[in-house]
Amino acid sequence: MSPDSPEPTPSDASRLVVIGAGPAGMATAITLAERGLSVTVVDQNPRPGGQIYRYPAVPSTKPRQPDRGGALREHLAEHSDRITVLSDHNVVGIYPERRLGLCGPEGFRILAADRLVLAPGAYEYVPPFPGWTLPGVMTPGAAQQLVKSQGVAPGRRVLLAGTGPFLLVVALALHEMGVQVVGIVDTLRRRDAFWKLPSLLADGKLLKQGLDYVAGVRKAGIPLMTGHIVTRAEGRGRLEQVVMAPCDADWVADHDRSRPIVADALCVGYGFVPRLGLAQLAGCELTPTNLPGGWIPVTDAWGQTSVPGVFTAGDGAGVAGAIVAELAGQLVGLGVASSCGAIEASEAERSAEPIRERLHQLSRFRRGLDELGSLRKGLSQLADESTVVCRCEEIRRAEVDEAISSGSTTLRSLKVATRLGMGPCQGRMCQPACARRLYDLGLGSLEEIGPPAFRPPLVPVTVGQLAGMDAPGGEPADAELVEDGWEADSAS
Amino acid sequence: MSTTTPRSEMVQFEFDGQQVLCRPGQSVAAALWAVRETVLRTTAEHQAPRGYFCGMGVCFDCLVTIDGRPNCQACLVPVAPGMVVTPQGAARAESGGGVS
C-alpha cells in the first residue's frame, strides 16, 4: 500500500495514536510532531522509555551516562504541544474502525484513531525446563530491571543462561553494580559464530560493540561457557543449584556430561518474542518465522499492516533491537504523515531514503544474529513429564502429551483439551514454546499449529473498571466487553 | 549492592505480617527481593512457590494481594507507605479480581 493511498479520510485533524513508548513509539511520535501533526502516545509504564530505556524507579548510585533513551525522552518533551503521552494506560481491546479500549488511573475509556501505530515491543523467550518456576529463576531482562532500575541485586551468585548478546549486556550491568556473576552459559558454540562472521562484519560498529562486550566479560573474569545449555534448576522453595550440560549444534543436551553449579539466581532467555496481542485484536495478518514467538505481522514498506490505517514498528513487528526500532519508528512516522496528507508522497520517499539505507545495512548484521539465534529442537526437549509448561494453569507436560496423542496438534485444540494458555498471561509464556514443540515433533507446519490467540481484555481488568467508570471524553464501555472477562475466555 | 538512601527517607510497608523498609519508588517485588523475600505466592493446584520472573508485567507470576485487593502484579506496583501486602494463596480462585 502506498503512503498516498486515499483510505481512510486524509485530514490535518486526523487522530493519530501510537501504542507503546519504547524507541519505536517515541521515534514515530517525534517524527509526526516534527511534521506538524498532533499525536497521542499510550503507554503502560509510568514514564516513556519502554523496557530497554526504562526510566529508573530509584535514583542510580552511579552518575547517569547520557543514553539514547534519555535523548528520545527529551525530544518527546520538547514536542509536548503536539505529543500527548498517556502513561499508566493499558490498551485492553481494539474494536472496529480503530477504536481503542483504554484502562488508566481514571478507569476505562474509548479512544478512536484515524491512524494507529502499534509499537508494543517484545518479551523474553523461555521454553520450559525442570525447575523453571522456582523463585530465583527469572529472565535476564528481569535481572536488568532489578539492578538498573530498582537498585537491587538479583542474587548473591548469579548465573546467566540462554543465547545471544543480551546475556553479555546483563552480565556486565550486574558486574558493574558489584553483583557476583558466576558464569554465562550460551548454547552457541564458538565455531557457529565464526561462520556468521561475513554477515556480522556488514556492520563494523555493531560488531565492535559485540566484541567489546565479550572483552568486558573476559576482563571481569566472568566464565563464558559456550556450547552449553542449562537443563535443570533445583532447590527447596527457591533456587539453590543449576544443572548444565554440553550441547550439540541442535542444542540437544548431553545429559551424561551434566554438572551442577551453585547459584541463587538464574537469568535465562533465548531471545525475544514480539508482542502480538494488539496486532491480533486489530485483525492484522501474521506470517510465520523461525525466531522466538513464531509469528510477526505482515507489513508494507511503510510499516502498514494488512489492516488499512494500522501500522506497526519496532520489536513487536519483528525483533531487531532498539537501534532498528528507532529507525523503523521514523519510517512509519513518515508513512503515517504521508498517508494523512501532511506531507507529499515524494517528500516522504526522499526523507525515507537515508533511513532505509541504514536499515538495509543493519539488516545484514541482523540476519547473521538471527541465524545464530534461530530456534533449535534441543530447546523443546528440556521439559520432562512432570515439568509445568503452562505457569498460570499449572499444566504439566504429561497432560499436554496426552492431549497430543489424542489428536490435539494445534494451539487451539490444546487449549480446549488442557486449558493451556487460559490463565491471566493469556498464553504469552507457554504458547510460543508449545507451538515450537509441536513443530519440532513434526506434527505440523507453523501455519497448521497456528499463532497464539488473544482476546480482549488484553490485560485482566475488573468488571467495575470496565462498567462504571467513564473518564472525561470517553464513551461508556460496551456491554459486550463487560461480559467478556478473561476468566470466561473461550478457546476461540 | 549498597543503598545510599538515608534511613529516614526509607518507606515502610507490611509483607506477610512483617515490617519491611525499602527505597522510595521501588516496586513491591524489588523491595521484597532486596530483603530476600522471594516467594510471592503459592499456586492453587500444586502449592508451588512462585516469585519475580519477567519483571515487566507479562507473566503474571508475581501476583500478591495489596491492601485487600488480590491479583496485583508486584513487579509493576510501586510501594506506598503503610501498604499491606500478603502473598497470594490461590491465584485461579481469585482471578476475577483486579490487576493494576
Topology of this structure?
The complex is a heterodimer of chains A (492) and B (100).
Chain A: E1 16-19, H1 23-34, E2 39-42, H2 68-78, E3 83-86, E4 90-95, E5 99-104, E6 107-112, E7 115-118, E8 122-124, E9 137-138, H3 140-149, E10 158-162, H4 165-176, E11 181-186, H5 190-195, H6 197-200, H7 204-219, E12 224-226, E13 228-234, E14 241-246, E15 259-262, E16 265-269, E17 272-274, H8 277-281, E18 286-288, E19 295-297, E20 310-312, H9 322-339, H10 345-373, E21 388-390, E22 395-396, H11 397-405, H12 411-418, H13 431-440, H14 446-449, H15 463-467, H16 479-483
Parallel strand pairs in A: 1-2, 1-7, 2-3, 7-20, 9-16, 10-11, 10-16, 11-12
Antiparallel strand pairs in A: 4-5, 5-6, 8-17, 13-14, 14-15, 18-19, 21-22
Helix pairs in contact in A: 1-2, 1-9, 3-4, 4-7, 9-10
Chain B: E1 11-15, E2 18-22, H1 28-34, E3 41-42, E4 49-50, E5 63-66, E6 69-73, E7 84-87
Number of helices of chain A: 16
What integer is the average pLDDT of chain A? Answer: 89
| Largest beta sheet: strand ordering of chain B | 2-1-7-5-6
N- to C-terminal distance of chain B: 29 Å
Overall residue-averaged pLDDT value of chain B = 88
**Beta fraction of chain B:** 25-35%
The helix fraction of chain B, in percent, is under 10%
N- and C-termini, Cα separation of chain A: 30 Å
Structural class of the helices, strands and pairings of chain B? mainly beta
Topology, number of strands of chain B: 7
Biggest sheet statistics of chain A: 5 strands, parallel
Which structural category fits the helices and strands of chain A? Answer: alpha/beta
pLDDT < 50 runs, ≥5 residues of chain B: 91-100
Pair with the biggest interface:
A-B, 52 and 46 residues
Low-confidence stretches of chain A: 1-12, 468-492
How much is the radius of gyration of chain B in Å? 13 Å
Number of strands of chain A: 22
Task: Please give the count of helices of chain B.
Answer: 1
